[in-house]
Design brief:
273 residues, mainly alpha, Arc Repressor Mutant, subunit A, 13 helices
């Protein structure tokens, strides 16, 4: 499910994102109740989405978490669309707070990409929010500003930097989606990856006995051996057995792909006049 940001009233959404207005508090029933706030509502919504996914998000569900009715929330946030914008921008504060030093551009971009990958894996629902229309919030801009600053250190011209921004974010998001899907597959389908592959591999060999002849490039690649194992957090390969194989593959694909992208940036720098 793809969700597009910026579906609410533009002026109200942006004023909430940039906190240029403060809604009046709700008037509760008998007895004192904790005051609501935009931040409290957004925090509850983020926790809900992290735990149960985007499909569980509704004003009513968020209200239940806060011990309030959905109507009480509307005084602070006009609706689900505006709430989604606020959630998206709020979690991006995690990226905005970490700004790698741009001295060694390759090392800095490697750190940025790794931290951004882990950010998406922590909040997989963010991957469902399309980047076709940005939220235009302060934390989203701060994260973008970090990446642009790191790319500036490459010395490449502005036109190329714009395209690199448009390349790196989708690359990291795609890798994070693969990791997130690998984590969810077994729980969602009721079968492990080993069981899934065992059943289908046997059936495929039986039903397509000429597979190697029909797809020689794929068969040759498979026959040339596995890819390098995914390195652990310390750069080694120890301790990775606890990570399921599909996730290890997704992370290794990310590592190798990022290296090739950075090699391409280095090549572009070498071609400068």
């Amino acid at each position: 499910m793809v969700v597009f940001a910026g579906q609410g009233d533009p002026r109200r959404s942006l004023s909430l994102l940039w906190r240029s207005e403060t809604p009046a508090p709700t008037r509760g029933g008998p007895g004192p109740k904790p005051r609501l706030s935009v931040d409290a509502i957004v925090a509850a919504a983020v926790a809900l989405a992290d735990e149960e996914g985007m499909g569980a998000l509704s004003m009513r569900a968020v209200g239940d978490r806060l011990g309030r009715t959905a109507m009480a929330l509307y005084t602070y946030v006009p609706g689900r669309s505006e709430l989604l914008d606020l959630m998206y921008d709020a979690v991006h504060a995690e990226l905005a707070a970490r700004r790698p030093e741009p001295g060694d551009w390759r090392a800095a971009l490697t750190v940025w990409a790794g931290e951004t990958l882990e950010f998406y894996v922590r909040h997989p629902w963010v991957l469902q929010v399309s980047q076709a229309r940005p939220v235009l919030g302060p934390h989203e801009y701060a994260g973008l500003d970090t990446l642009v600053a790191l790319l500036r250190a490459t010395g490449l011209e502005a036109g190329v930097l714009r395209r690199l921004v448009g390349t790196l974010f989708p690359f990291v998001r795609g890798a994070a989606q693969a990791v997130a899907d690998a984590r969810l597959a077994a729980a969602a389908t009721g079968s492990s990856d080993a069981e899934w592959w065992a059943a289908r591999s046997a059936a495929l060999l039986e039903l397509v006995p000429d597979f190697a002849e029909r797809f020689p490039a794929v068969s040759r690649l498979e026959g040339e051996g596995p890819a390098e194992p995914y390195p652990g957090p310390d750069g080694g390969h120890e301790g990775t057995e606890a990570v399921p194989y599909p996730e290890r593959e997704a992370r290794e694909t990310f590592r190798v792909g990022l290296g090739v992208l950075l090699d391409g940036i280095e090549a572009a720098r070498a071609r400068r006049p």
